[in-house]
Hints:
Order of helices and strands: HHHEEHH
Number of helices: 5
Helix content: 55-70%
Number of domains: 1
Largest sheet: 2 strands, antiparallel
CATH architecture: Up-down Bundle
Shape: flat
Radius of gyration: 17 Å
Oligomer: single chain
CATH class: Mainly Alpha
CATH topology: Four Helix Bundle (Hemerythrin (Met), subunit A)
Distance between the termini: 19 Å
Structural class: mainly alpha
Amino acid sequence: MPASRIEMIRAWFKHECESAEEMIRWLDSMPESSRKDPRYGQALLLLGHLFACRDNWLDRIKTGAANQIEWWPESQKREELPVRLDKVKDEWGVYLDSLDEETLDVDFDYAFRDAGKRWNILGQLMQLVGHSYYHRGQIALLVDQLGGTTTDTDYFYWMVAQDRERWPEIVPRPF
Length: 175
């Protein structure tokens, strides 16, 4: 188990990135005929939205919201997803590596509509994790409805696979 808050956040981020890779595989598992269904497009948009949230919140934290992109892309192409994920992993990885325990308690200011807002870095990082779980469940349901294959992205089973010494008796589910 991670020993500090920042280590926990880095673990959550690693789990989130590996889960995003899984979601891309889920989309690829769907029959070709299902990819014409509007729900397939909805699943793509949901994953694109998750990446946009990561982009926008990092921009808000670092620049106050100087370089915002669309939160909900009008369309999302399947082939763009790995590139977007790599960008999120790279930029957030560098950012999270720069943080320490004290930095988590710092507030940041950002522009929102016509007003300024202020929030705590730890609070925002927690929100991003919860937001990802929320949309990952929606994507899993859509993929399942369209005949695709999903895998268990539950954090517990991911941790079991990370720390076999702690849970030697539990068989980790495929991730």
